[in-house]
Amino acid sequence: MGAQISMPLAHKASAPSASAPLADRLFVVGGKLLLLALLTLAVLLPLLAIFWRGFSPQDGGGLAAARDLVASENFHWLLSNSLKVSASVAAIVVPVAYLFAYALQRTLIPAKPIWRGISLLPLLAPSMLPGIALVYLFGNQGLLRGLVAENIYGFWGIVLGEAIYTFPHALMILLSALSLADARLFDAASSMGASPWRAYRSITWPATRQAVFAAFCLVFTLTITDFGVPVVVGGDYQVLALEAYKAVVGQQQFGRGALIGMVLLVPALFSFAVDAWLRRRHGDAMSGRAQVFRPQPSRLRDRCYLALVLLVCAVLLLVVGMAVYSSLVKFWPYNLSLSLVHYQFNTTAGGGWLAYGNSIRLAVGTALIGSVVIFTGAYLMEKTAGMRSLNLVLRMLSFVPMAVPGLVLGLGYVFFFNLGGNPLHVFYGTMTLLVVCTIAHYLTTAQMTATTALRQLDSEFEAAALSLKAPLYRHYLRVTVPICLPALLDIIRYLFVSAMTTVSAAIFLYSPDTLLAAVAVLNMDDAGNVGGAAAMSTLILLTSAAVSLLLAWASRGLLRRSQAWRQATTTH
Questions:
Q1: Domain count of the chain?
Q2: Is the same domain home to 308 and 358?
Q3: How far is CA 26 from the centre of its chain?
Q4: pTM score over 0.90
Q5: Can you give the residue range of the structural domain that contains 96?
Q6: What pLDDT, in 10s, does the model give residues 483-505?
Q7: Residue 478 belongs to what H/E stretch?
């Protein structure tokens, strides 16, 4: 009977041994080469097209046009406005976000999940929503117009709108930094008689200052390259991003748009380079023997931080709530009765329900295709041996989108895919190109999430698969994916929400048949239909929130099955 059992097992074991090496080569080598081709087409060539078009003497480009642009007073005015706005927003947002993150991670304030959820609401809506809400709050006929001396249109309108839009982006970075703390250091400081302020200066600040700089750079870059808020509440106060948008969309001056895009690329590249240098010098924040830090009760401290958290959440709820309320008002400010008239998009200019359906298609395609490509690519780079030079090239190309603003990336897609002699021109204006551009735009953050999860897995998993002569792709599907399922679901949720709210990268790539909901918000606002713009923004917000909650609920069963190994078992 033993012989009868051993014979089938021997035959089953011999089959994979013959096919596994070939299957592994196809999976690893073919996957990496395919990823290289995709990154070249989606990231590298569009960026090269920006420089080619900027220095090409046509449509307002060329070296002479570049010299004239840089020397013009109008450019100096636009650049000065952009720098002032971006620096002001970063100076306001980063300290507030730091205190908010500190309250969530280092104090004992109640209801932390609620405050964290409220703080992330602006992530679920396009950047125009804060601007629209400010119009209804402080505009010429705003609800709180009497509280402000000056008109909201201009410098302070842009600063306030961008501050609300960029706040959750800075908060996520600072939350991650403040979540890492070694309790032993604080115990040692307390035993030596150090005050809480001294312990903060000696322990917390050195460990988080690199994250503060990263948050400052991120807020600065997001602000200087965003045109959603300026187009709504900018008024006569013009900025570079809005000028690039007008040059391409309104004036068809592609060369001028490319030159401005190159200028907008400079602060992002500089911030990325300095941040990478600081990361190398920073070192590890925690050792393997670190102990979890648990804050001690302090009534005065917790009350002060709770007051700050309540104030920030009240502002965010006021802005988001005002946008939702204005979308339901029949005719502001003369008829405040509630109605769904603004949600009848097919009867108004701007794009109708077609735009909303296109955004759903874009978000689903980006989330499903992007998560598979990004997670598989991260696995091939992190968990397979050999081809080190190719791995280095793939890592570099994967990090490029982090340093490239969405507006610049979108311009690059216009110049590359709209080129007459390019055989890929057939994809211009299609949903396929919008999906590719959106995945490329948000590639780096998703890839870093996947890499972080994969690096937590011991390399012995792959060694065990090889010793059992099992194909690597089978091990990837049956072992790696289930273990890293939480990170994969986070990537899917992140890509879906980002695709629903994206404006800057897709503004130049849509056609009448592929108009997006976030772009429709811009069109409605330009047409004077501010109520319709608020309604579409609210619909995007609610859809993003609903899908996020649905994914969280639907993934419970999957996580319960795939993550059962994490649960502690009792022994008898």
A1: 2
A2: no
A3: 32
A4: no
A5: 63-331
A6: 788 888 889 999 999 999 988 88
A7: none
